Amino acid sequence: MTIKPLIILPDPILRQPSRPFEQVDTEVLRLADDMLETMYDAPGIGLAAVQIGVPRRLLVIDISRDDEDNKPQVFINPEIVATSDDRSVYEEGCLSIPDYYAEVERPATVTVQYIGRDGKQETVEADGLLATCLQHEIDHLNGILFIDHISRLKREMVIKKFTKAARSRVV
């Protein structure tokens, strides 16, 4: 497994919609393993393939607590097929927008269809942190960032800050 460099805002690839996989093969599974290694190293609880520069519909999640064994989950071609009317608010952060956090309101429960590591179609009904994490990562696959769910003024300030930081890294 290889730790991959993370793509950071304002890189335009983060706004690019990701393409689905036609099949689950060793290349897809190797990418998922690399993503898990990268996510654990960061450290984070979720990572979309586009965040390592691969605009494909793949995400990994592990919401286990520090005192628990890792419980990695791999979602290939995930799609939200249902959401609840109930809402929940979580403070979200993002490995592609380091050290910035904001409260985001999302549906409290989601149903997601995806392909698992074994190549079989699966469905998960999620609530709590898993529901929030799935929505956050699936947003990435659609070219949406969590800052798109906050006020325009706050979003513009974050983008301006990261654009300025990116320019200073290039020099």
From TrEMBL:
- Identify the keywords attached in UniProt to this record, alphabetized: Hydrolase, Iron, Metal-binding, Protein biosynthesis
- What is catalysed by this protein? N-terminal N-formyl-L-methionyl-[peptide] + H2O = N-terminal L-methionyl-[peptide] + formate
In the record's cofactor note, how is the cofactor described as bound?
Binds 1 Fe(2+) ion.
The entry lists its GO molecular-function terms as: metal ion binding; peptide deformylase activity
Would you kindly state one Gene Ontology biological process term found in this protein's UniProt entry? translation
Q: Which cofactor does it need?
A: Fe(2+)
The name on file for this protein is Peptide deformylase
Species of origin reads Pseudorhizobium pelagicum
Report which gene this protein is encoded by: def
